[in-house]
């Protein structure tokens, strides 16, 4: 199984969704087409990768296995930045909690 397929499988199973559900949600006519993505037998086109990323609320970089660069920085005060952890978006209330912790609990 490819890294892409493993990530798809893990994301789908973490949501408790069937392969059929995911296939229908992204507009595929066949569950087998989606299953082949998970098994690493086929690769989706760019449009389908984007639909999968949107469905699972992760980045396309995450799905495609791109490793994050350690020297990237972001400002928690930046309202336009989307912060993620393990491929999932950090909710705004959690970001506010993180800011308070970084300010020393103030």
Walk me through the structure.
This protein has helices spanning 3-15, 19-25, 31-39, 46-56, 60-63, 92-102; strands at residues 84-85, 88-89. The protein has 106 residues and is mainly alpha-helical. The protein has two domains: 3-63, Orthogonal Bundle (434 Repressor (Amino-terminal Domain)), CATH 1.10.260.40; 69-106, no CATH class. The protein has a two-stranded antiparallel sheet. The radius of gyration is 17 Å and the shape is elongated. The relative contact order is 0.12.
Ordered list of secondary-structure elements with their pairings:
Blueprint: H1 3-15, H2 19-25, H3 31-39, H4 46-56, H5 60-63, E1 84-85, E2 88-89, H6 92-102
Antiparallel strand pairs: 1-2
Helix pairs in contact: 1-3, 2-3
What labels would you give this structure?
434 Repressor (Amino-terminal Domain), mainly alpha, 106 residues, 52% helix, 2 domains
């Amino acid at each position: 199984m490819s890294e892409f397929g493993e990530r798809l499988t893990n994301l789908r199973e973490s949501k408790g969704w069937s392969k059929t559900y995911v296939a229908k949600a992204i507009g595929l006519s066949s569950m087998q087409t989606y299953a082949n993505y998970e098994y690493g037998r086929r690769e989706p086109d760019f449009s389908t990768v984007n639909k999968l990323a949107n469905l699972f609320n992760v980045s396309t970089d995450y799905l495609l296995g791109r490793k994050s660069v350690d020297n990237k920085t972001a400002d928690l005060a930046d309202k336009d930045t989307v912060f993620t952890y393990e491929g999932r978006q950090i909710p705004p209330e959690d970001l506010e909690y993180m800011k308070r912790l970084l300010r020393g609990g103030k």
